[in-house]
Write a structure and sequence with these properties.
Layout lengths: L16 H4 L3 E2 L1 E6 L5 E6 L2 E6 L2 E8 L3 H9 L1 E6 L5 H6 L10 H4 L4 E2 L8 E2 L4 E12 L11 E13 L4 E2 L2 E2 L1 H4 L2 E3 L5 E3 L12 E2 L6 E2 L11
Antiparallel strand pairs: 1-13, 2-3, 2-6, 4-5, 5-10, 6-9, 7-8, 9-10, 11-12, 13-14, 15-16
Length: 222
Amino acid sequence: MHYDATGRNHGLKFDPFKALAVPRPIGWIATVDRNGVPNLAPYSFFNAVSDRPPVVLFASGGHKDSLRNIEDNGEFTCSLATYDLRDQMNMSSATVAPGVDEFALAGLTPAASTYVKPPRVAQSPAAFECRHWKTLEMPRPADGKGEPFIVVFGLVVGIYIDDAFIKDGIVDTPSMKPLARLGYMDYSVLTPETVFSLNRPITTEDGRSAKLVSGPWDGVYR
């Protein structure tokens, strides 16, 4: 099949876009409101966009609590959503009234951050502490239905990693079992059994060809 994505003329039961743009990391975003009440929500439109400096982004469908809180105080955290915390992550997605503490709703413990006011999820093995850098409003939907998505960029000013997952100077990310969002109501999980490494190709001196290096990663960034 081939269809006009701007008009969503796919003829299927559900829009397949999010089932194809996969897997997507989950941004488990924590903020605080003007009264100091924490807010926690998962966003499936999330990713890192640079590492020098480290910057992450997430997109909110309209002005949700996370976005309003960031506009008020300019800070947020992003904790890693893991398989062991899948039910808590799901509960924190509930559309509850402003001012409701989703940490308490999901049975999670807020842990104090070092560089920003919003807390991180204490049970999560890793978290980014972020300061708001820029907000970008996306185009309105072609059919005029719903609010436009709003992209929030955050400069990462602090990173927490549980020492139990640092081995030989490298973060053992697969052992954290991070969750990934797929389409519909589907998720996936990263595990040690599903991870493999590849060496980057080595380019010839004249720059006109390259060759692959077999075997596990040789520890060289190219």
